[in-house]
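Final report, results section. Input specification for complex C-07:
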Amino acid sequence: MELVRAEGITKTFTTRSGGEVQALSPTSLSIQEGEFLSLIGPSGCGKSTLLRILSGLIEPSGGELIWKDGAPTSGSDVGFVFQEPVLLPWLSIRDNVRFPLDAFGVSKAEGNERAMEMLKLVGLGDFGSALPKELSGGMRQRAAIARALVYRPRIVLMDEPFGALDLLTRDRMNDELLRIKQEVGATIVFVTHSIEEAAYLSDRVAVMCARPGRIRTIHDIKYDVERGEALKDNPQFHHWLSVLRKELK
Amino acid sequence: MLRAVISLAVFLGLWTLACELFQVPSYLVPNPLELVEKFWFLTTKADLFSHIPITVTEILIGFVIGTFAGVFGSVVFFRVPAVELLLNPVIVFIQTAPKIAIAPLLLLWLGLDMTPKIVLVAIVTFFPVLSNMLSALRSMNPEFNSLAQILCLSPWQRLIRIELPQSLPLLFAGMKVGATLAVTAAVIGELMGARGGLGYLLSLGQETADVSMVLVSVLLLSLIGYLLSLVIELIEKKYLNWHESV
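Structure output:
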């Protein structure tokens, strides 16, 4: 089932000197319900721009988004995970995760319950009362993911969520994300510039290229084996790595 | 706290010693013991405790009004750029002018009671709070705005849930600056014309060449200023434990 379709989306930015830069040339993309779609490409290919247009953070210069059940009207339709955790430093981890629910008028008791449930899911069950500054980078990003999932949005958009983490933590977070996704079954659009991350996590990978920013190809990533640590030694995985690498050259 | 007591004791000791050693006449620099005597005299015979509340009230009321006005003003400036465009030149002008200089005007308009002092205290508190709050609101983390936009927060939710809490560290810094200015402003106001208060005692001491009375007043004023900043720091510790600097 198609959740949302981008139809000829373009974005042109005006530079300070008055010139125009085309960040995204007409781009069409269909996002299926429940899929994990990665946008991958070099910097300047418009992947973050496309993501932010999907989220409603920026308006496209042309084209339109067609949603299955109509365009999102409230904040609870879209979840967004930024490159930085963007947690509110004065709130405890639990209150940060409850933050969207508070804004949507969910009662505090129910909000606490749902926040703690979500924190347990991302492995932070014991850290609800900690302040963001007391947590490591990876834990903070997990809390940010919990905050984006806690209100069960129709779509979760992630903008290089693990880009600021060290490699070991990043690997662990990828495994966590696979598990979380299986448990919640959310639709996820994931921006990354890591080929491995894209091949490891995605049902589909859209390869983008720059000047002007556009989608070059879309691959269906299928494996005969379960995704997990063992996949990384699987020839199929390495096949996809080399396909994607060649295309990004 | 202990360190403060020790350094105070050492200071008082040296003072007494110096007075004895150099035989300073007590009408120029009284030693601490004489000050205590004076304090006792003022308390029992001259109703010192009716003067302290006057000054403290002026400082507290003026400070609270000035702080709230500063916060309110900064939010209006931040949210309604037209108001800022209109008022900013005036504000900058007033901000650079020595605000103490308007004390005579306030006294002429508002009389010799507490009102002109409260107004003066409020004015000197208002500006540091306003400018600190404005720079706090303007230096908002842009991703917080994105988050607010994603969650479709109303302007009011944004203000209460994100902008004001995020501004607290700079607000407290502004309040600390305001607190020292507030004590000065109250004293200046009282020096220029009052029927009571520690500033009034100061000028009375000056007119009667009573150095001990002047010193007692000065010490009490320092104590008030110190306590005020202590209270602000306590509140800060309680509400700012999330901040990196704590």
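The first helix of chain B runs from residue 2 to 21. Chain B touches chain A at residues 141, 143-144, 146-147, 149-153, 157, 161-162, 165-166, 168, 241-244 (CB under 8 Å). This concludes the modelling results for the funded period.
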